[in-house]
């Protein structure tokens, strides 16, 4: 199982995928808002979205798991 983690602390502004979606390496899966900037978080590898671990409005810290890929 692969994990997509937050690269910085921020608030989940948008979730660009749904469970069951196929994603490619480099595809944006979650957008974080930090200091009035939108930061896209991209999948490092291709895979199928197994679980979305956050919701819009959640605050996350650097390293928190956002999405798991199978």
Written description of the protein model:
The strands form 2 sheets. The protein has a 4-stranded antiparallel beta sheet, with no helix packed on it. The chain has a 4-stranded antiparallel beta sheet with strand order 5-4-2-7, with no helix packed on it. The protein is mainly β and 70 residues long. The chain has one domain: RNA polymerase II/Efflux pump adaptor protein, barrel-sandwich hybrid domain (OB fold (Dihydrolipoamide Acetyltransferase, E2P)). It has strands at residues 2-5, 10-15, 22-23, 28-34, 37-42, 47-52, 59-60, 65-69. InterPro entries: Biotin_Carboxyl_Carrier/Decarb, Biotin_lipoyl, Single_hybrid_motif. Residues 1-70 form the Lipoyl-binding domain.
The share of residues in helices is: under 10%
Number of domains: 1
Specify the overall morphology: globular
Per DSSP E runs of 2 or more residues, the count of β-strands stands at 8
Provide the gyration radius in Å. 11 Å
With strands numbered from the N-terminus, the spatial order across the biggest sheet is 1-8-6-3
In angstroms, what separates the terminal alpha carbons? 5 Å
Indicate the CATH class: Mainly Beta
Q: Spell the H/E element sequence.
A: EEEEEEEE
Q: What is the residue-averaged pLDDT?
A: 97
Assigned CATH superfamily: RNA polymerase II/Efflux pump adaptor protein, barrel-sandwich hybrid domain
CATH fold naming: OB fold (Dihydrolipoamide Acetyltransferase, E2P)
> In percent, how much strand structure appears in the residues?
over 45%
Main sheet overview: 4 strands, antiparallel
Second-tier CATH architecture: Beta Barrel
Count of DSSP H/I helices = 0
């Amino acid at each position: 199982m692969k994990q997509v983690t937050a690269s910085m602390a921020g608030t989940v502004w948008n979730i660009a995928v749904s469970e069951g979606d196929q994603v490619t390496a480099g595809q944006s899966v979650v957008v974080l808002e930090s200091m009035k900037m939108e930061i896209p978080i991209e999948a490092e590898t291709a895979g199928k979205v197994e679980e979305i671990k956050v919701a819009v409005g959640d605050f996350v810290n650097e390293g928190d798991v956002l999405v798991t890929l199978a």
